[in-house]
C-alpha cells in the first residue's frame, strides 16, 4: 500500500525524478515492482517541494490516480526544486477525506509520508492518541492512521527531538500499541531526509552528481541503488546516508488499549 520518494540535492525539474524514470513514482501508481501489499496506487497522490529562499514547502495533492491528472505532467516538467517528497496512495480503508488523506502531510517546514498500515486502527492507537493535546487531535488533516502517526511525529519534533529520533520513537510507540503494523515513515525539512524501514521495502541512491534519493523502490535499474534492511532508521542529506538498526518494542502491553468493551 502506497509508494513514496524523497530527494535532496541539486535543483532539477520534479518530473526528472517522478515522471521521467522508467519505473518512476508515476509508473509505480499502476505497476510497482516491489510492492508487498496491494497492487495499484490509485487512491490519491501528492508532491511537496521547496522553492529557493522559502522554508515552507508547497504541495499539490489530488484524490484520484496520478495518471488521471492531466495537469500534473506539465507542472512536473517546469517546476524545479532541490528538495521534494512525493507519494502515490493505495488506501487501507475507504474514507471520505479525499485529497486531505493523501501524503505528503505538512506543518511548518516539514513534509511527511507513511507507507504501511496500523494494525487494528483506530482502536489500537487509543493509547498513543491520549498523549496528544486536544488541539493536536482537532488539527488532524484526515481521519486515517497516517494522519494520526504524523501527529505523533510532529509532537516530538515540536518538543525538540531531531528527525531521526522523532521517527524512531514514534515507530516504537505505535509498534508496541499495534503489533504487526507496517511503519515505513518518510520525513524531510528540505535539507535532510529521515526514514524508517519497518515492514515494507525501502531503498536509497547516492547520485554521482550529488544528491540523495530515498524511495520505496528504485525508479530505474542503476546498480548503485541500495536496499535498506527491515527495522532500520535512515538519516541522509545531500552527501551522506547513515543507517541505524531499530529495536523491537520491549513491552507491548505498556501502551496497548484495554480489550474491555465500552460501557
UniProtKB/TrEMBL annotation:
It catalyses: gamma-L-glutamyl-hercynylcysteine S-oxide + H2O = S-(hercyn-2-yl)-L-cysteine S-oxide + L-glutamate. Its EC number is 3.5.1.118. Keywords: Glutamine amidotransferase, Hydrolase. It is an enzyme of class 3 (hydrolase). Pathway: Amino-acid biosynthesis; ergothioneine biosynthesis. Residues 2-263 form the Glutamine amidotransferase type-2 domain. Residues 237-263 are annotated as: Disordered. The keyword Ligase does not apply. Pfam families: GATase_4. SUPFAM superfamilies: N-terminal nucleophile aminohydrolases (Ntn hydrolases). GO terms for molecular function: hydrolase activity, acting on carbon-nitrogen (but not peptide) bonds, in linear amides. One of its GO terms (biological process) is ergothioneine biosynthetic process. HAMAP family: EgtC. PANTHER family: GAMMA-GLUTAMYL-HERCYNYLCYSTEINE SULFOXIDE HYDROLASE, GLUTAMINE AMIDOTRANSFERASE DUG3-RELATED. Catalyzes the hydrolysis of the gamma-glutamyl amide bond of hercynyl-gamma-L-glutamyl-L-cysteine sulfoxide to produce hercynylcysteine sulfoxide, a step in the biosynthesis pathway of ergothioneine. This is Gamma-glutamyl-hercynylcysteine sulfoxide hydrolase. It comes from Streptomyces cadmiisoli.
Amino acid at each position: 500500500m502506497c509508494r513514496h520518494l524523497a530527494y535532496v540535492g541539486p535543483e532539477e525539474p520534479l518530473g526528472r525524478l517522478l515522471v521521467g524514470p522508467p519505473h518512476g513514482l508515476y509508473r509505480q501508481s499502476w505497476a510497482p515492482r516491489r510492492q508487498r501489499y496491494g497492487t495499484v496506487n490509485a487512491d490519491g497522490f501528492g508532491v511537496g517541494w521547496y522553492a529557493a529562499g522559502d522554508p515552507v514547502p508547497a504541495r499539490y495533492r489530488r484524490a484520484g490516480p496520478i495518471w488521471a491528472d492531466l495537469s500534473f505532467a506539465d507542472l512536473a516538467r517546469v517546476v524545479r526544486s532541490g528538495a521534494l517528497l512525493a507519494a502515490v496512495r493505495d488506501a487501507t480503508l475507504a474514507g471520505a477525506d479525499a485529497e486531505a488523506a493523501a501524503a505528503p502531510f505538512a506543518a511548518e517546514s516539514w513534509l511527511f509520508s507513511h507507507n504501511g498500515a496500523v494494525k487494528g486502527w483506530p482502536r489500537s492507537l487509543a493509547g498513543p492518541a491520549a498523549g496528544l493535546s486536544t488541539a493536536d487531535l482537532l488539527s488532524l488533516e484526515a481521519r486515517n492512521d497516517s494522519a494520526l502517526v504524523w501527529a505523533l511525529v510532529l509532537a516530538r519534533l515540536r518538543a525538540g527531538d531531531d528527525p531521526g529520533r522523532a521517527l524512531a520513537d514514534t515507530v516504537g510507540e505505535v509498534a508496541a500499541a499495534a503489533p504487526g503494523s507496517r511503519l515505513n515513515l518518510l520525513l524531510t525539512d528540505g535539507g535532510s531526509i529521515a526514514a524508517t524501514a519497518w515492514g515494507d521495502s525501502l531503498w536509497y541512491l547516492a547520485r554521482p552528481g550529488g544528491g540523495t534519493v530515498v524511495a520505496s523502490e528504485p525508479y530505474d535499474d542503476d546498480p548503485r541503488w541500495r536496499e535498506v534492511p527491515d527495522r532500520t532508521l535512515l538519516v541522509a542529506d545531500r552527501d551522506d546516508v547513515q543507517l541505524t538498526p531499530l529495536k523491537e518494542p520491549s513491552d507491548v502491553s505498556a501502551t496497548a488499549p484495554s480489550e474491555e468493551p465500552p460501557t
